[in-house]
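Field: COMPLEX_INPUT
Field: COMPONENT_COUNT = three
Field: RESIDUE_TOTAL = 721
Field: MODE = joint
Values follow.
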Amino acid sequence: MEFTVPTLIGIWVAAFLTLCIFSFLYHDNPLYKFAEHLFVGVSAGYWMSTYYWQSIRRDMVDKIAEGDWISIVPGILGVLLILRLFPKIGWISRWPLAFLVGISAGFNIVYTMQAQILKQIDATILPLWSGPFWNGAMGAATWSDAMVNWIIVLGVFCALIYFYFSVEHRGPFFGVGSRIGIYILMISFGASFGYTVMARVSLLIGRMLFFKNEFWPAVQRTFGMG
Amino acid sequence: MIEFLKRLDRRWIFLVILLSAVLPMIFPLKLPTVPGTDTNSMYRELQALPPGSIVLMSFDYGPSTKVELEPAATAALTHLWRGNRDIKVVGMALWPDGGPLGRTAFKKVLADLEKEGVKKTYGVDYVNLGYKAGGVVALRTIGNTGGFPGAFPKDLEGTPVSEIPLMKQARKYRDLAMIVTLSGGDPGIKHHIQVGASQYGLKVSGGVTAVSAPEMSPYLNSGQLVGLMGGLRGAAEYEVLLNINGEALKGMNVQSSVHMMMVILIILSNVVYFADRRNARR
Amino acid sequence: MRREVPLIITFCVGMFMICAYYSPITEQYVDRLNEWFTIVTVFAYILGIGSLIIVNGGKIAKTAPGWGYNAVLLLSFLLTLGFGVFQGIKEDTTFYWIFQYVYNPLSATMFALLAFFIASAAFRAFKAKSPEATLLLLMAFVVMIGRVPIGELMWDSVHLNALMPMNELIDKWIMGAFNTAGQRAILLGASIGVISVSLKILLGVERSYLGGD
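Field: COMPLEX_OUTPUT
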C-alpha cells in the first residue's frame, strides 16, 4: 500500500475515531460523545454538499442557466418548504409537502400493485404435482420441488389468515390456519435473526480488517518498522 | 455458575465477542465455502451476457454497509470484465455515498485486472453517473423521454453526459441488458425491481446486506430477481466461483468463530433460564 | 384554505401520476413532475439542516450543559460543507479526505457496535419460553451455523451431508420454502397496507402529513 503524508495522517485519524466509538462499549465518555457529534456534523455536511452538486446545481441551476426557465419551479417549491421553520408563515410549506406526498402516493399505488401484489400472487400459483399433469400441463420438475410448492402455497395462505384480525382465530379454518401461519412466520423470523447476526458480525469484520490491512502497515511505516 | 451467568456484566460478553473476532485474524482457519443456489444463478446470468452488453450497476450503499457490499460490487465487476470481456458498465447511485463508493470499487477492480492485462477506458467502457435523489421516482426519471442524459445531465466528475461516448449507446432502459444493484437498504433493490423489472422487463440481480437477504426470497421465487449475493457470505461464494481470494472469503473465518460464540452464548442463557425455572418450581 | 388547497394538490398530483401510468399523452408532463420531485426532496433535507442549526445553535447560545459537543457538531458541519461546496466533491480534495478518513470510519464503526449489542441482547433475551420461541431459536441456530464454513464442516463430520447437504437444507427448504412463504405473506399484507394508506392520503381521509393548524 502506498503511503502519502495525507494518507498516513488520515489512517491515524480514522483509527483514533474508531477507538473513540468503541470506547462506548466500556463506558460512555467524552471521547465517544466528541466522535458522535463529529459524525453527525460531518454526515450532515457531506450529504448537503452531495445534494448541492448532484441535485440542486446539476438538475436545477445548470438547467436554468441553459435557458430552461421552468426549472425554477422546484426551487420555488423548495423555498416554500423551508418556510416551515418560521411558525407564522409555516402553513405555506404544506403546498410543496402536498406535492411530494401526492406523487409518492400515486407512485406507490401503481408500482406496489404491479411489482409486489400482482406479481407475487402470480408467483404463488404453483404446480402441486410433479411430472405431466392434466391436459398436457407440466407439474414441478421433481417431487421435492412439488413439496416446496405445497409449503409455499399453504404457508402464504395460512400466514395471511393469521394477519386477518377482523375475525376471531377459532375453529378449524381460522384457528388451525392461523396456528400454522404463526409457525411459518416464526421459521421466517428465525432465519431473519440468523441473517441479522451475520450482518452485524460483518460490520465488525470490516473494522477488524481496517486495523489489520491499513492501520498496522501505517504504524509500521510511521515508526520505520517491518 | 448459574448465579454467575445471571449477574454477568455485559462487558465480559463484549470482550468474548472481540476475542472471537480478533483471534481468527491472527490464526486463520482456511475453511472451504460452498456457493449456494442464488449466487450460482447470478453467476450464470452474468456469464451469459453477450459481448457489447450494457449493464447498469447501482451503488446503493454507504460506509455502514460497505464491508458487505463492496466485495459484492468488486466480485460482480471482476466477473463482467475478466478476460477482457466487452461488457459496458453504467454506474449510478440512489444513496449520496454511493457515487464515491462506486468510484472506489471501479478503481480497485481496474487495478487488480490491470495485472491480468485488462484495460478499461472511462467514458468508453464504463461511466459513473453519480447520485440521483428521489428513490423510485429517480428511477422513473430514467424511464422518461429524456432517458439517462435527461436524468443525469453530468456524471460524478462533472463532465456533461453528452460528451461521454458510452452514453450515446446507453440512452434508455431498453439499451440495457441487465441491472446489478448493490443495495444497503431503502432506496435500493426493491425499487429497481419495481421499475426496471416490472415496468421495463429487465433482469435484476445484485447484492444485499444479510439483514435484507431473507426479504428477497419472494422476489427470487417469482423470478423478479435472477440471482443474489446475500451479505458477506454471498460475496464470498461469488469469489469462490471466480476463484479469487478476496476480502469476503477472508472475513468468513471471523464469521465462523463469532457465530459459534453467539450460539454458545444463547445456549448458556437458555441453560440459565431452564435451571431457574426448575428451581422456581421446587 | 390552509388545509383545503394542499388536499386538492395531493389529489390532483396523485391522480395524475396514476393516470399517467396508463396514458402516453401525459408522458412529457410526468417527466417534469418526476424531475421536480427529485429536487424538492433535497430541499426537505435542507429543512432538516435548518432544524439542526437552530437546535444546536440555541444550546451554544445558552451555554447549556455539553454545549462544547454542539459546537463540535456545528463546526464540523460548516467545515465539511464549506470544503464540499467551494472545492467540489472530486477525488484529491479535502472534502474527499474527510469522506474517506472521518465520515467512512465513523459511520462504519457506529454500526459495528451493533455486533456487540446483538450478542449481549441475545444472551439476555433470547430464551425458549414457548413453542413458537423455540422454533424461532432452532431456525436461527440452523441458519447461524449453516451459513458459515465451520457449520458446513460440522454437518459433514456427522455424515448428515449424505442425507441432505447443508446448502440444500438452507437454500431450498428453509429460505426457498418456509421463509419465502412467510416473507411473501408479510410483503402482500404490507403492500395492501401501503396502497390503502396511499388511497386514504389521495382522497383526503388521512391528513396527518399536514400537521396541526
